[in-house]
Structures are given as C-alpha cells and as structure tokens.
Design goal:
Layout lengths: L32 H14 L7 E4 L2 E6 L4 E7 L4 E8 L2 E8 L5 E9 L5 E6 L6 E6 L5 E6 L6 E6 L9 E7 L5 E8 L15 H4 L17 E8 L4 E13 L5 E8 L5 E9 L7
C-alpha cells in the first residue's frame, strides 16, 4: 500500500474513515502510561466527557470499552468489514476483518513516542505502507514520509497563532521523484470551535482519523478545502474546492456536515455524527 494511495480526492467529503483494530481478548487490558497520555490528549482537545464519545460518523459505528473508555471497535457493515484495536506500551495494534465471515484481512500498527505521538505506522503487510512522522515543538505534525522512499511525503504548514490556536493551513503531497503532485489548502471563517476534533482522513495511508496520536491540527472547524493537482511534462495545474457547512447540537458539537462543490453547487455528501450522550438538535 502506497503512502498516498488512500488519500481522498476533493470530490469526496473530507469526512471519511480509517482501518484499525485489535484482538478481542485485549480490549479491556490496562492502558500503559504512553497510551494514557494519548487518550488524555484527545479528551483535552475534545473538551467533552468520556461518556460523550463519538459513536457514529455517517454509517461508521464506533465502540469503546475498558477503564479508559478507549476506541476498541470500528464497523462499516455496508462495506463488509470491521476493525478492532489493542493498546500496549508505546504501541497500538489494529486488525481488519471481513464482516460476513470474520476472516482476518490485514494488520496495522502504530508506534508512539514518550509524548503519545505516533512516530511510525505500518499498514498491511507491504513495507511501502510504513510511514514515519515528525513534529514541531508544539506537537504539531510537520512531515509524514515513506520510510523506504523518503521523497514520497506530506508536508504540513500552520498559522502562527500562539497558545494552541494555530490552524492547519495546507498539506503538500510529493511523489517518489520529489515532485509535488497535490496540495490541500484549508480556510476558516471566523473562529467556530471544533469541540470533537478528528485527524485528516489521509493520515497513515487513510487509517488514522479516529486515533488521537497525530498531534494538534486546528482548534476550529474547517470551512473550505481547496485542492490543487499538478501534472508535469508539460506542466498543468487543476484546482477545485469544497465548501463545508455544519449544524450543531445544543452543546456546540457537530451534528451534520454538508459537503458542497464550490463551482457547481452540487452536494457531495451529508454526514451525521452521533455521540454517546443524549442530545437534541438546535
């Protein structure tokens, strides 16, 4: 699996999902200090109680268990697979299964540093799916690259606001030859807080959206994503943009996300989120 193979196009909603998992008998294991730090960071960023976890993101179902209420299962029955997670010291293991047969499909793994940040991920059994990660002093991801083909990489740029207010501005994608073939730029209208932040969906070959182990990206909700694609010999540039509109629960958490093509006005998708606590829409 290539580093960028599962990165989505702008014609899809940016809210898509991951491939993660673990063995059933490890679900309720006592969490290591490293994994505790990662979970604590997620709770702090989300600013919500443990009993208000995200339990569905569109058709994706999320289950939690154990004394730390960690994500232990992720299911997408319509695509005939589910994923289970196991946590240990400086390591998260995931296994993907076929829904209809319970047949094991693939293993993924995530290695953490002392701060609970992912420094390496391996997706599937192909070494090309091994990615390394680098962070700045503010625990923001600044680079993700193929361990065996380091020119194949993603580079992240942030705004300069202090005190945890910095926002992700853009991500540049490079191929094995070192050529930039895509760039995503993020726009924010005002400062609407994101009370349940998730990761960009392309991380770890598309498997890292729900794990709080990749640092801080933005405290605010994204309003627009602009995608540029670059072809060479001869050089051509293609641009498109996606507008995101939200509805909210009374406590401010996102209820629905509507993705619309800026040029055509066509709706790409409407994704509904549900949380463990009882809520009603505004």
């Amino acid at each position: 699996m290539k580093l960028f193979r599962n990165a989505p196009t702008i014609t899809k909603a940016i809210i898509i999902v991951s491939l993660l998992g673990a063995c059933q008998n490890e679900k309720d294991a006592v969490l290591s200090p490293i994994a505790e730090q990662a979970n604590a960071a997620s709770s702090q960023n989300a600013k919500i109680a443990a009993n208000s976890k995200l339990i569905s993101d569109g058709s994706r179902k999320l289950l939690y268990s154990g004394p730390r209420n960690l994500l232990t299962k992720e299911a997408l029955e319509s695509y005939n697979y589910y994923i289970e997670y196991a946590y240990s010291d400086q390591y998260i293991k995931s296994t993907r299964y076929e829904f209809s047969t319970n047949k094991k499909i693939a293993d993924n793994s995530y290695t953490l540093n002392a701060n609970g940040l992912c420094i390496e991920s391996s997706v599937g059994n192909n070494f090309n799916g091994t990615t390394k990660y680098e962070y700045n002093e503010n625990q923001q991801l600044i680079k993700a690259f193929n361990k065996f083909e380091p020119n194949e990489r993603q580079e992240f740029e942030y705004s300069l606001e202090p005190n945890g207010q910095a926002r992700l501005l853009s991500v540049a994608f490079y191929n094995k030859a070192g050529d930039k073939f895509k760039e995503l730029a993020y726009s924010y209208v005002g400062a609407t807080p994101d009370l349940y932040p998730l990761n960009p969906d392309f991380l770890a070959s598309g498997t890292g959206k729900y794990l709080p182990i990749f640092g801080k990206f933005s405290p605010y909700l994204i309003k627009m994503v602009t995608e540029k694609k670059f072809n060479y010999h001869p050089f051509k540039e293609f641009a498109s943009a996606e507008l995101l509109n939200y509805t909210h629960y009374p406590d401010g958490r996102v209820k629905t996300i509507k993705s619309t093509d800026v040029k055509s006005g066509n709706t790409h998708s409407v994704t509904e989120r549900k949380y463990a606590s009882t809520m009603s829409a505004n």
